[in-house]
Design brief:
The structure is a single chain. This protein has one domain: GIY-YIG endonuclease (3-Layer(aba) Sandwich). The two termini are about 20 Å apart. The protein has a three-stranded antiparallel β-sheet with strand order 2-1-3, with helices on both faces. By secondary structure, the protein is α+β, with helices and mostly antiparallel strands. It is about 40% helix and about 20% strand.
């Protein structure tokens, strides 16, 4: 039986109210691990952005891409409100990805 691959948009932060990065992936656990270990160069490595503070799951990659583009256009204030609505303590959600 064919199972559609899931896609994820995610927001990682350098800390509470810190620098934010929005990304998209088909393997959230692996992508966040790479951010945490500094295996991905560029912006996230430079600014030590590695805490998963928000994510959404999509069954359709086109919807995930559209949502990522939408969030990237948002004002910083709106992104912070989105994070705090779902994760008021800015907890790192990475370990929760392994819970069943």
């Amino acid at each position: 039986m064919y199972q559609e691959k899931l896609s994820y948009i995610y927001i990682i932060a350098s800390g509470k109210n810190g620098t934010l990065y929005i990304g998209i992936t088909s393997n959230l656990q692996d992508r966040i691990y790479k951010h945490k270990q500094g295996l991905l160069g560029g912006f996230t490595k430079k600014y030590n952005i590695k805490y998963l503070v928000y994510y959404e799951i999509f069954g359709d990659i086109k919807e995930a891409i559209a949502r990522e583009k939408q969030l990237k256009k948002w004002k910083r204030e709106w992104k912070i409100k989105l994070i705090e609505k779902n994760n008021p303590g800015w907890n790192d959600l990475y370990d929760k990805l392994f819970e069943k």
